[in-house]
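Hi Y.,

Following your request, here is the sequence exactly as I used it, all 228 residues.
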Amino acid sequence: MEESISGFKVRGDWGDVVEHGERIALALREVGVDGDAYYEFDEWRPKTHERIDEDVSEKTAAQASVDEGEGERAGKSPGDDLQTAGEKLTESYEKVEENDTESARESWGESIEHVARAADSASRKALRKVEDAVYRNVMTQMAPYYFDNELVSANIQEVARAEDGETFIFEVNVNDDELKGEVSDVLGEYESEIDRWHVETEKRTDDIAAAEGVEPPAEEGGPDSTTT
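Below is the corresponding structure, written out as tokens. Let me know if you'd prefer a different format.
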């Protein structure tokens, strides 16, 4: 592993980058990091059973997409909001006929809000479709697969391909300088104290457990595992 101002970097095969991601995830946990930002990175980091041009590409596109708008968060489609906007508009006309100007104005305002929310939801959905196609088919051919949130910034790129396998560069930067120093210390301890790292692997134990009538064992490896 190389450490610089831009982060913690490793160059090697797929196993090397998987191990690098696991070490950083475990180091973050050891210094007390938790919460959504941590779990977003832990989900995105490469896994042994994954492929960069399929799984990591899909996760990169997903995390880079536009956030949900107010209407989507409320579980309303653009059609739902347009229907409500029409109802509010009708209600506004009825209030005008009843000489209830204040209520008519409120209903009119609500109608406009629902129209705007419908347009916002439709725009976000359309943009996500474009983004997904761009990230999958264009950006990942030109730039590294990347991840970015308030906790870490990371990127992976394939730099060589030969008969004996691919070579990758995986770099992760902890965005807070003080926290980065703590993570650096833990990673240094791993380098000097751990002889062999048990890389997390995906296990298919459900079928076996069902056949034998026992509970499946807990997963080994990763941020909650032990090493020797």
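The longest helix spans residues 101-142.

Thanks again,
Q.
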